[in-house]
Amino acid sequence: MSINLLDFDAKGLAGFCAKIGEKPFRARQLLRWIHRAGEADFDAMSDLAKGLREKLSAAAVIEPPKVISDHTAPDGTRKWLLSVGAGNGIETVYIPETSRGTLCISSQVGCALACAFCSTGRQGFNRNLTVAEIIGQLWWANKVLTETFTSEAGRERPITNIVMMGMGEPLTNFENVVTSLDLMLDDNAYGLSRRRVTVSTSGIIPAMDRLRERCPVALAVSLHAPNDALRDQLVPINRKYPLRELLGACERYLQSAPRDFITFEYVMLDGVNDSVAQARELVQLVRNIPCKLNLIPFNPFPDSGFKRSSANAVSRFRDVLMEAGLVTTVRKTRGDDIAAACGQLAGKVLDKTRRAHRSIAETAG
Ligand code: SAH
Ligand code: SF4
């Protein structure tokens, strides 16, 4: 089987070049052709010698996951369903706004962490995505969007922000996610700043510490409950990594974070975690941590057993947080008509469940 060069970051490509007897600077050329120029055809890489191009064609490919479907909602939100083999699909969502364009990327097929309100969690875990499958989502979206992008007020390129908020728990696919992050940040590849790349985690504490050391990008932590008793139910990994320890990890993370706050995500579930008393408890919980709160109206799916909080409940909850001085945003729902949502994304190509998309762009800052 051919080597897929999308699996390599700068270091990996340098290793690959050494193996085929090429000088290290070839790795940088390749990196630029692949990720900056979005080029998949070795023959088009005009500053590589013909002999090298032939060698590459024989030994390697540049192959992102294949597109199964591509939908754009009236509000511009665009969703790709990509095949990763064996009937499995993953989703990638693009959310354009005036001053930024955010790409929401998946890290696994399914998820092992089984959060009660998450459709991806309901599907169980299938497998980790490879680097080529993770970065391939960005490679593909960037290529397609660049072809039609005309410089809009406020930004010069289609994708300015990345959020790892698609299917899966990024921090349980650590090595592949970090290699992909390296490529997102590399000036010879996508050149994004650390502040504009966000990893969202349900709170895998040891991996949060490793991320802080290896590649401290912006961090969003899925809280969803103001105390351990409720969080144990909603986010079962809390039984292993409870709130007090999680908040400690957030404080440590802040010492290296590119932003001076952590984003806490809080899905609003009717009658479960949306009372004024729970808002007050949440204020006490996060009191000592520089943070922003992002309230996410629950996106329903069949047999979820949960309902979305009413607009009134959401605004009452938000008011309590804001009055206590916490910066709080409520996520808008976008692209409903094309059916895509974090927590509701397709695990199987054959899954035709209707989904609604909610905007994740606020978190991307
Ligand atoms: N596994 C990571 C990232 C992917 S999920 C995490 O849990 O953080 C991205 C976000 O979507 C998380 O905050 C998650 O809790 C939230 N989410 C999951 N299911 C949802 C649903 N049905 N409605 C709204 N948000 C949901
Ligand atoms: Fe996994 Fe995140 Fe869904 Fe929980 S919310 S099951 S961690 S994808």
From TrEMBL:
GO biological process, one term: tRNA methylation
Entry GO MF terms: 4 iron, 4 sulfur cluster binding; metal ion binding; rRNA (adenine(2503)-C2-)-methyltransferase activity; rRNA binding; tRNA (adenine(37)-C2)-methyltransferase activity; tRNA binding
Keyword field: 4Fe-4S, Cytoplasm, Disulfide bond, Iron, Iron-sulfur, Metal-binding, Methyltransferase, rRNA processing, S-adenosyl-L-methionine, Transferase, tRNA processing
Positions that bind [4Fe-4S] cluster: 111, 115, 118
Chief location of this protein within or outside the cell: cytoplasm
Cellular component, GO annotation: cytoplasm
PROSITE patterns on file: RADICAL_SAM
Domain Radical SAM core per the UniProt entry, residue ranges: 97-337
Coiled-coil ranges (or none): none
One protein family per Pfam: RlmN_N
Gene3D superfamilies xref list: 1.10.150.530, Aldolase class I (3.20.20.70)
Protein role: Specifically methylates position 2 of adenine 2503 in 23S rRNA and position 2 of adenine 37 in tRNAs. m2A2503 modification seems to play a crucial role in the proofreading step occurring at the peptidyl transferase center and thus would serve to optimize ribosomal fidelity.
Protein family: Belongs to the radical SAM superfamily. RlmN family.
Name of the protein: Dual-specificity RNA methyltransferase RlmN
